[in-house]
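batch_manifest entry 22 of 60
target: Reverse transcriptase zinc-binding domain-containing protein
source organism: Neogobius melanostomus
requested by: lab member K.T.
priority: normal
notes from requester: please return tokens only, no post-processing; we will run our own comparison against the previous entry in this batch. if the run fails, retry once and flag.
--- input ---
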Amino acid sequence: MSDLYKCNFLPLISKLRVDLEKWNNLHITVTGRINCIKMNILPRFLYLFQCLPVFLPNSFFRQIDTLFSSFIWKRKPPRIRKGLLQRQTSVGGLALPNLKYYYWAANLHKISFLIHEQALNWCTMEIKSCSMSLVSMLTSKMPMRFSQSSSNLVVISTLRIWSQFCSFFKFNELSHYNPIYNNHTFPPSLDPAFLHWKSQGLAKLNDLYIDNVFASFDELSQKYSLPKNHLFRYFQIRNFVKSNTMSFPFISPCTIVDELFEKSFRQKGALSKIYCLITNIKSECMEKIKKQWEAELGKQLSEVDWKRALSQINGTTSCCKLNLIQFKTVHRIYFTNSRLSKMYLNVKDECNRCHMSPANMTHMFWSCPHLKNYWAIIFNHLARALEITLTPSEDAAIFGTFFNRNWESYTNCERNTIAFSTLIARRRILLEWKSTNAPKASHWYKDLLLFLDLEKIKYDLRGQPSQFDTTWGAMINYTKTLKTL
Ligand SMILES: [Zn+2]
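--- output ---
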């Protein structure tokens, strides 16, 4: 088994070092670098993860993470937490692959076959190699020693990976799917009475609960037609559950372990589904960033509002550079004077344009008095182009969406136009970040036309020219009526 690691993973890491070194000098944005990892490096590792049941220690993944971080940030210290980059694109992340999660997903996928497809030849072979029930081992309390549990090294390796996964997420409790019959942690389980229970459909701990409460013997015997003389067996299993479950007599909360045992993951894209399930268990918390925005804006953002702001990050355009701008804005990555003043004594917390304090994110993008005219012109043009009433608002100016209003009442075309046009406006502010003058709306207008040309090319290349006209028709027609701003 150790040769498998030496012959496959070590050469891959050496090759990865060479490749990243070579690509490091290329002019690629952070998003581009993440996409390189996603499209080029991930499949190489995933292939090995799926084919080789080799136990990989945490140090292996730490080594890869260091290589990735050095590549993404061009050998400089990271500016965004890895966890934020790893969040899914649908929730405002950049979907940087988490190799450790992919490794677990590949192995969990295999385990789901061992649970649901036991008739397959390789599954039968692996299950038979075990000295005790495989399902019982997988659903028991962790940690557990597996070295003597099977004569097959592949199975031992799979079980070690399972244990590594469970201990990382602290899944130490008994699973709902722990079997009642043939359970190595419950010695009386080999009694024929429990085999009878199994044949009646009372096979796992989950079945012992009715309406989420541990059922009485009468209830169970009624539901599963159990004979009266099985009462003693009932007491045995109840005592076993009671002494091993914290929440007894109530059912413990469902975990991914239970989900894995419940569903079969045979369909296409199963590995990605398991990966998503794993990322959802422990995704990087955005609460601190949300609170900072709430403090600056002086209002509460509801979960729906915040979700909308996050989904807008990658939902406005397919242009990586523009998406990155929105990602950095919402994640407050940009260095405002307010932030710099906390780092350097010689920097004053005041706006370069109006000399007011604090020059925080909200001030720089919205509340600076010098930006009032800029935003007023932009919102006025948007309202006239879309023929709707539109009041300038910080929500659209910063997040490209409206909070606490009926955003859904706008058509898709109106929403896209507002989100995209304000994003171009934010880009213009960033281009003149340190300037003492406010950006000009005429520059925004030029930028918008330029980026619309690029969008049109993208739609044409995708073979959807009519979709471009549907989305941007109103704006394009409006620009034709204007000679200059
Ligand atoms: Zn200002």
